[in-house]
User: Fold this.
Amino acid sequence: MPSRSILAGIGAYLPERIVSNAELALTVDTTDAWIRERTGIQQRHFSAPHETAAFMGTEAAKAALADAGALPSDVDGIILATSTPDQAFPATALRVQAALGVTKGFGFDLAAACAGFIYALSVADSMIKCGQAKGVLVIGSEVYSRILNWQDRGTCVLFGDGAGAVFLRAGEGTGSDQGILSTHIHAQGTLGDILYVDGAVGQPDKPGHLVMHGREVFRHAVTRLAEAVQEALDANKLTADDVDWLVPHQANRRIIDAMGRKLGLAPERVVITVEDHANTSAASVPLALCQAWKDGRIKRGELVLLEALGGGLVWGSALVRM
Ligand code: COA
Assistant:
């Protein structure tokens, strides 16, 4: 019987510096009221120079390993989702590997924007199921503050920095349904121009800034995420009534509320961190998961539905029995 991927531990890291909407409004032509009304965001964390994707990913990974009672020697592989790596190479995952003192296994970065953590979870789950690894760190770590266009008030107020991680451990078939029940990932490259970064290290003199056509992204997000959630439930012959917690991508309070309503979940069953973190892209789902895990809301045995969508367009869902 193939192994299941158990979420053995969860960890997170947020930069020390918190920037409120009011502070942002000192340098950007915006208001606290506009940001709150349209997005629900009240504040975000911005990285100091040393708080890179590798640094924050390492801290989140350490916390996830500690939460699992695991050691660096238990790690067979590291998959790190990011759009803001420290360097083109080595992969940020390998900077984390070195910092943790992990000396075996594989490591690579995965670029799927805000759906990166769901994508990474899907890849790690497949590797565990096929017996290629027994312990995998799945990390989302982002420093979007470095790719924001401060002249574009429609985007620069929406994002923050941070990292989240889970340690997946192979659980042999015990008859229990604990672990990742399913993942579903999708992409539509023809929508690449509604949310993108207009540069990269491979482009001359163009490190790149985030560009977004907000309304179009909003429209696709509501439709695609609803499909991904339904797909997860159908694949497991479950209904929304079976779901204990929705942990959605934290981009916009209005999208999150729409998803909760679609599922018919009581608002207190939807984990929301967008007020405090803003959109941390690949880090947003594990950061939210970690918060509800640490404060005791999410408990072992409960069914948790994760979903995210990002530039690409990429989107997906994961259903997990904790
Ligand atoms: N502060 C104040 N005014 C702002 C502003 C800001 N930060 N940003 C934009 N505005 C203004 C615009 O200039 C525009 O003014 P105008 O009507 O005088 O031209 C007005 O607000 C409406 O702008 P618009 O971009 O149409 O707003 P919107 O209602 O679509 O909301 C978003 C913008 C970004 C909040 C919304 O589109 C959204 O949430 N999209 C999805 C984003 C998302 O989820 N992205 C991540 C996916 S990973």
